[in-house]
UniProtKB/TrEMBL annotation:
Annotated Pfam families: FAD_binding_4, MurB_C
Primary role: Cell wall formation.
Catalytic reaction equation(s): UDP-N-acetyl-alpha-D-muramate + NADP(+) = UDP-N-acetyl-3-O-(1-carboxyvinyl)-alpha-D-glucosamine + NADPH + H(+)
Endpoints of the signal sequence: none
Reported cofactor(s): FAD
Pathway annotation from the record: Cell wall biogenesis; peptidoglycan biosynthesis
Subcellular location: Cytoplasm
Enzyme nomenclature, EC number: 1.3.1.98
Protein name (Swiss-Prot/TrEMBL): UDP-N-acetylenolpyruvoylglucosamine reductase
PROSITE patterns: FAD_PCMH
Keywords for this protein: Cell cycle, Cell division, Cell shape, Cell wall biogenesis/degradation, Cytoplasm, FAD, Flavoprotein, NADP, Oxidoreductase, Peptidoglycan synthesis
Amino acid sequence: MTVNIQHQVDLTSANTLGLSGRAAAFSHYTSLGSLIELQQSARELNLPLRVLSGGSNILLAEHVNALVIKPAANNIRLIRENNTHVWVDVDAGVDWHQWVCASINYGHGLENLALIPGLVGAAPVQNIGAYGVEAGDFIEQLVGYQLSTQQLRVLSGEECRFSYRNSIFKRELKNDFVIMRVRFRLQKHFTPTLNYAPLDQLNADRLTPAELIYTVVDVRSSKLPDPKITPNAGSFFHNPVVTEIYAAELRQRFPAMPQYGQSVGVKLAAGWLIDQCGFKGKAFGPVSMYEKQALVLTTSKGATLSDVHNLQKIVQTKVFKTFGVWLVPEPQVFD
């Protein structure tokens, strides 16, 4: 096997924020053999190996001094089933939304995660979630290659240590684990999760899986811009979680503030906080907070990582001064 490695590759179109950036080297991986060969090539080039999936949750640096690799395998395979569940293996290179749409042919549970941009291989890293559902709830295990030990590893869902927009791949295994495929455990019986507005207006008894996907797509499309038209990375900041005592204090000062009780603490709506600070639709050079949803940062042609960081710090500082809450960005810097 011989992998094809390109040099000095423009990654502007490979990240949904459209940030200008270039990789020292670039290639695709489809198998364990290709990963082993790419790791050897990276050593010869004296470059680290970095995985770029769908580019929907990254802040691209202008110069990425690495051999950047992207998953290209895109198979979906039914592994087994019983009376209540089905187990399906999905390659890392499969488009996430396409997988959600296809998943209802096997089982159920992922419908609320429709239209989230990116590839399946990135879903466990961020533990993507929407409308009360997280990908980690349905991941039985995944297979990947650990760079430091040069070993193929199978990690259970528990070993991935999923939490809110987090996983072991953003901590101990950051930049050390290349996900190859993910095994999902889906429910045979369709039991929709409709706890979050506006899905709570739907009739669960009459709802079909396809209708739920259609509704989620419609709702997301009305709130979030299409990254192919308006470059963005979806929700830019995490919804912050504060103590119940501080949440009560904020309620007294801001009675209209949305708050959501958690098992520990109270979650606040970052978009509401940003909107109240007057940032919705406001531009700072080639970057701005989206006019329809203040939580979304958008860019125009020529925007760079420094432009994004500038607006990020302005928003964080104003929100902190107003509400005493420090917002943490969701996208990770890719450099």
